[in-house]
Amino acid sequence: MRGTGSIGLDSCGVRMVDIGKVAEVVAALPSIDNLEDLADAFGLLGDQSRLTLLVALLEGGELCVCDLAAATSMSESTVSHALRLLRAHRVVSVSRRGRMAYYRLADGHVRLLLDVGLAHISHTAIMYSEPGSESS
Amino acid sequence: MRGTGSIGLDSCGVRMVDIGKVAEVVAALPSIDNLEDLADAFGLLGDQSRLTLLVALLEGGELCVCDLAAATSMSESTVSHALRLLRAHRVVSVSRRGRMAYYRLADGHVRLLLDVGLAHISHTAIMYSEPGSESS
DNA sequence: TCCTTATATGTACATATAATCAGATATTAG
DNA sequence: CTAATATCTGATTATATGTACATATAAGGA
């Protein structure tokens, strides 16, 4: 069921070229919820302030708010707001000792994504991959 | 130079608790430009429409605009706009054959990030990792 | 208790972003 | 050339998002 090349309409009138392939892709797509969650996670990493804080935590292991602010040249308020969001999404976790709050990465996913991302930007610039023989 | 625990101010009056660690983190942080690029890349994946299109391309290999629209239940215009952004950032590439435009993933980085992300959402939910002994 | 420190929060504002619609471009067929 | 098809683009609008400022909470020290 591939490469039919047929042009057709589904029952709702949606135009398609390769009906078989579309069906294949639809079947392979994750659920809307999963895609939403994943987009959400990527979105959290898609802001420079938050990403910088996370990388700082990746490097430093555990840092208090004011050290995070110092290390990233951000205001403590900005840092606190960003951490609140990250906290809400369980990306970082806090240990309160005395009047300080020490943050660290709490999420294995994000740690891996950060590693993958950092590994590639350190390879100088962008690396384009060959088209790749895709598949059925 | 770790765990000094000293509280101090730098020459510009920035408050810090662990000066040594802050210096360490600052030294280890990627350049602003790199962080910007990385945040940018994550940001592209941080939208459900774009992410869905990219996953569709990851599964389908190469699809024309109308098939992408059909597979993702989005309007062709929305798809086209999203693809334009992705094209501008070299995340996808086009082959125009006749009056059709066939898109595919063009960027090895993104493919890897998608794989990592998808692998983890398929592991049901979130996996928390242990704190990790931070370093030096 | 009062004052200072460390962090958290609310609100407002300014900017950015994405979806939609209408129209433009480009390609093929007749 | 004209008509039809596939994709692209621009403008508008609605919503989301990041940031700054002011204030609130909470802890420790005098």
Walkthrough of the structure:
The structure is a homodimer of 136-residue chains. Chain A is α+β, with helices and mostly antiparallel strands. The first copy, chain A, folds into two domains: 1-30, no CATH class; 36-122, Arc Repressor Mutant, subunit A, CATH 1.10.10.10. Chain A is built from six helices and five strands; from the N terminus they run ββαααβααββα. In chain A, a hairpin with a 5-residue loop joins strand 1 (8-9) and strand 2 (15-16). In chain A, helix 4 (65-72) packs across helix 5. The radius of gyration of chain A is 21 Å and the shape is elongated. In chain A, 35% of the residues are buried. At the A-B interface, strand 2, helix 1, helix 2, helix 3 and strand 3 of A face strand 2, helix 1, helix 2, helix 3 and strand 3 of B. Chain B binds a DNA duplex (30 and 30 nucleotides) through residues 15, 47, 49, 64-66, 74-84, 96, 98-101.
Q: Which key terms come to mind for this protein?
A:
136 residues; alpha+beta; Arc Repressor Mutant, subunit A; two-stranded antiparallel sheet; 5 strands; 13% strand; disordered N terminus; DNA-binding
